[in-house]
């Protein structure tokens, strides 16, 4: 269940990191969760992550061959936005549908229509479950697990959303199992079934249908929520900082004009556009507490003893807002990522995808989506914040990820 991440809130501060002794409060926290994001480091994690990375690359992640799928999805985004004319609208469902469709096309072998009621419900459930998972009531679930089964309030709501998402994903997996053609794999699920069959006589193998469910859940949720929230933050910042939006428009005009389709090959020619995306990522830190790690040995860091087995949670928000690293860290300044010649600067402290062995598995896919979708939308629209609408809090809504507070926006065709 999603409340596994609640131990984040029980941690204590350590410079730019959090750590948690697993024996606190008379219970023991564990990272022994299936999947590839929160699974414990070891042979199973290595097997599953290696397979997942190679299969995603097979379907185009990190390669130009994936561009057409993203570009194709952009047509639907623009069509949806154009329907609103000069009226304000809620961009959340449009962006979430689009981003989710990219990962769904690789993992599930299909995209979903923006009016698909079941799919829209799943995306709403996912966003709500991530938000509920850090609800103060849910902290109690890690202390008293039986509270999870209470028939009221957030406990009941979380169970319902989890059940709906589980039913949705397991139905798709079952359909794949029943229609599998090993000679013509369609997507990640097919490739997993084929590999599991190849490994069935290997006693050390961890590949089975139960584990597949957790892997697909990781891909579906992480592949949708993080990138869609980043893009929503981008649109919000552009509408609130028109002077930055004008500079992005000018660069796109110079490199792409109005008709050339954005490509990853244009990235090097568009440093200000890239710097703007990076500054949004720095300001918002969509995964502010990153992925938890566990100390394999007792260690001392800056005078603090971290016992073996302690859960350690890197605080990316603190790193990205550290005044010792960033000048005026609370100000939105894309130029901080550019040198005196206007070329992009890579900064060691900029780590929105984490680092090390647990670095985000979808980093390359996310970078592709962020650049292509953001550049294409900025090429086609000028985004305005409604004049009479109250500005949303820029602190966002904290769940397992940091989502923008609800807002409406105006997309004027350029």
TrEMBL record:
Q: How does it sit in the membrane?
A: Multi-pass membrane protein
Q: Which cofactor does it need?
A: heme
> Where does the record say this protein resides?
Endoplasmic reticulum membrane; Microsome membrane; Mitochondrion inner membrane
Q: Which InterPro entries match?
A: Cyt_P450, Cyt_P450_CS, Cyt_P450_E_grp-I, Cyt_P450_E_grp-I_CYP2D-like, Cyt_P450_sf, Cytochrome_P450_fam2
Q: Name one GO biological process term.
A: organic acid metabolic process
The protein's enzyme class: oxidoreductase
Q: Which reaction does it catalyse?
A: (5Z,8Z,11Z,14Z)-eicosatetraenoate + reduced [NADPH--hemoprotein reductase] + O2 = 19-hydroxy-(5Z,8Z,11Z,14Z)-eicosatetraenoate + oxidized [NADPH--hemoprotein reductase] + H2O + H(+); (5Z,8Z,11Z,14Z)-eicosatetraenoate + reduced [NADPH--hemoprotein reductase] + O2 = 20-hydroxy-(5Z,8Z,11Z,14Z)-eicosatetraenoate + oxidized [NADPH--hemoprotein reductase] + H2O + H(+); N-[(5Z,8Z,11Z,14Z)-eicosatetraenoyl]-serotonin + reduced [NADPH--hemoprotein reductase] + O2 = 2-oxo-N-[(5Z,8Z,11Z,14Z)-eicosatetraenoyl]-serotonin + oxidized [NADPH--hemoprotein reductase] + H2O + H(+); an omega-methyl-long-chain fatty acid + reduced [NADPH--hemoprotein reductase] + O2 = an omega-hydroxy-long-chain fatty acid + oxidized [NADPH--hemoprotein reductase] + H2O + H(+)
Keywords in alphabetical order, please. Answer: Endoplasmic reticulum, Heme, Iron, Lipid metabolism, Membrane, Metal-binding, Microsome, Mitochondrion, Mitochondrion inner membrane, Monooxygenase, Oxidoreductase, Signal, Transmembrane, Transmembrane helix
Binding residue positions for heme: 360
The residue range of the signal peptide is: 1-15
**EC number(s) given by UniProt:** 1.14.14.80
Query: Does the record bear Acyltransferase in its keywords?
Result: no
GO terms assigned for molecular function: heme binding; iron ion binding; long-chain fatty acid omega-hydroxylase activity; steroid hydroxylase activity
Similarity comment = Belongs to the cytochrome P450 family.
Task: Please report the name of this protein according to its UniProt entry.
Answer: Cytochrome P450 2U1
Which species is this UniProt entry from? Buteo japonicus
């Amino acid at each position: 269940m999603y409340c596994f991440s609640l131990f984040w809130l029980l941690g204590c501060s350590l410079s730019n990191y959090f750590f948690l002794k697993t024996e606190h409060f008379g219970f023991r926290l564990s990272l022994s969760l299936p999947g590839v994001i929160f699974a414990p480091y070891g042979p199973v994690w290595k097997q599953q992550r290696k397979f997942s990375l190679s299969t995603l690359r097979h379907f185009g992640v990190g390669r130009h061959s994936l561009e057409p799928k993203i570009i194709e999805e952009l047509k639907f985004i623009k069509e949806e936005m154009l329907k609103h004319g000069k009226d304000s609208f809620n961009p959340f469902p449009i962006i979430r549908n689009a981003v989710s469709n990219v990962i769904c096309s690789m993992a599930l072998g299909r995209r979903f229509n923006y009016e698909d009621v079941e799919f829209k419900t799943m995306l709403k459930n996912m966003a709500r479950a991530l938000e509920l998972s850090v609800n103060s009531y849910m902290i109690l679930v890690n202390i008293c697990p039986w509270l999870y089964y209470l028939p009221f309030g957030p406990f009941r709501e979380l169970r319902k959303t989890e059940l709906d998402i589980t039913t949705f994903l397991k139905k798709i997996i079952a359909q794949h199992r029943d229609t599998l053609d090993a000679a013509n794999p369609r997507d990640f699920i097919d490739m997993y079934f084929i590999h599991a069959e190849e490994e069935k006589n290997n006693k050390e193998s961890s590949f089975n249908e139960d584990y597949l469910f957790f892997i697909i859940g990781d891909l579906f949720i992480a592949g949708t929520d993080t990138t869609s929230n980043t893009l929503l933050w981008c649109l919000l910042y552009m509408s609130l900082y028109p002077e930055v939006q004008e500079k992005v428009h000018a660069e796109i005009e110079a490199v792409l004009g109005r008709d050339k389709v954005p490509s990853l090959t244009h990235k090097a020619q568009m440093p200000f556009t890239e710097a703007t995306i990076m500054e949004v990522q720095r300001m918002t830190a969509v995964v502010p507490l990153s992925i938890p790690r566990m100390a394999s040995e007792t260690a001392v860091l800056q005078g603090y003893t971290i016992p073996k087995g302690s859960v350690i949670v890197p605080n990316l928000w603190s790193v990205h807002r550290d005044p010792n690293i960033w000048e005026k860290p609370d100000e939105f300044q894309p130029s901080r990522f550019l040198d005196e010649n206007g070329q992009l600067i890579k900064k060691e402290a900029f780590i929105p995808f984490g680092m090390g062995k647990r670095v985000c598995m979808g980093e390359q896919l996310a970078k592709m989506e962020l650049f292509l979708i953001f550049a294409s939308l900025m090429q086609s629209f000028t985004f305005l914040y409604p004049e009479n609408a109250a500005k949303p809090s820029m602190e966002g809504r904290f769940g397992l990820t940091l989502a923008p507070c609800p807002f409406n926006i105006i997309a004027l065709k350029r």
